[in-house]
Amino acid sequence: MILGKVVGTVVSTVKADDLAGARYLLVDKSSQRGEIKGDYLVALDLIGANRNELVMISESTSARETPLTVSKPIDAIIVGIIDVIDENDKIVYKK
Amino acid sequence: MILGKVVGTVVSTVKADDLAGARYLLVDKSSQRGEIKGDYLVALDLIGANRNELVMISESTSARETPLTVSKPIDAIIVGIIDVIDENDKIVYKK
Amino acid sequence: MILGKVVGTVVSTVKADDLAGARYLLVDKSSQRGEIKGDYLVALDLIGANRNELVMISESTSARETPLTVSKPIDAIIVGIIDVIDENDKIVYKK
Amino acid sequence: MILGKVVGTVVSTVKADDLAGARYLLVDKSSQRGEIKGDYLVALDLIGANRNELVMISESTSARETPLTVSKPIDAIIVGIIDVIDENDKIVYKK
Amino acid sequence: MILGKVVGTVVSTVKADDLAGARYLLVDKSSQRGEIKGDYLVALDLIGANRNELVMISESTSARETPLTVSKPIDAIIVGIIDVIDENDKIVYKK
Fold first, then answer.
1. How many contacts does B have with C, using Cβ atoms within 8 A?
2. By CB atoms within 10 Å of each CB, which of A76, A95, B82, E70 scores lowest?
């Protein structure tokens, strides 16, 4: 999974039918310290992530593997909100 | 999903059989502000996207997961036409 | 899908069993104008593409989704021979 | 598969439901000699990898294919702890 | 598929269970002429490839689609040993 910071929302009314009701967030890929990289993607949010939260994103086909996403054309899904990251026994990110 | 602007069409008469009848668009990958990057791909359009519209594209296997695309060798599909993108509570793209 | 120009063939006699009989082409990735990039891949050809033709290639798992490729370890397949590409209402490639 | 060194852990309490109980490690991609590249990802650990161990990581959909990960939105999984790598008949990495 | 040269082996005794018995090779990605790029990956070998042989590698989910790899977390598999590559009617690689 990759790390990213939630920076905004994406609104789309004309969608492939199966996507009705989904919520999309604008995410900026981030380092393990939570520093944004200016490299954006759009991810489906299933867990209520908020702006400025650091999240884990599953890309590719794996993104379909939840009750809500099975059989939907989704290739990026937010799978967790990060609380803490430690690197070499030092905390490098804390929510 | 990634963002891209519809810039043209791709016509192919000799195709793998399962693809008969599909409509392909030329898409230029774009920033969250709708600025094109000069990085092109060909995507299947299921929702009637038009030239100059900013769209969300699902890549990889996920692209097969609609009634029309199941069992077709498609790896990029337009899944939504973007109306509005906000970043840090400012609207950075509006249709 | 990505665009590429057929530039040659790849011959392999020792193969994973399921691949017996398949035809592989050497493809150079190309711009929307058909200009080659010097970035090569090997793709399975199901539709009789010839050298110098511009083709659409489906990558990743989607490549398996034809009667011939189901259950074969293929990750790149030629899915269409391009006739015409228009960009901003101008024809930028014609076969 | 790619090579990476385990450099830390990632803690997430709010997760997509299917991921409850999983253990995530921070991994820094590495060369065949075990040298880190400063290019991080988060991977699910099923085999008890420890900090400073060099591991093989399977990315993309393949990551789902274990009893624990079937139907979970995982796109990176640690599939082996590396003992030895030889290159051109010389040992370039040893645990 | 991508091209790579077999340059060594990878030994791992602690593995995700489903991988027991598999043989892993260190592969250096190569040009269509067989020139190595210094860009390494680890691939499962099902066909007895040897050091210095140029091989075709299937990446991503497709790698699972052989009797041996079904349901295993593999994302790179050697699917053929290359005998000859021709480019623009000239032989650019010969085993």
1. 100
2. E70
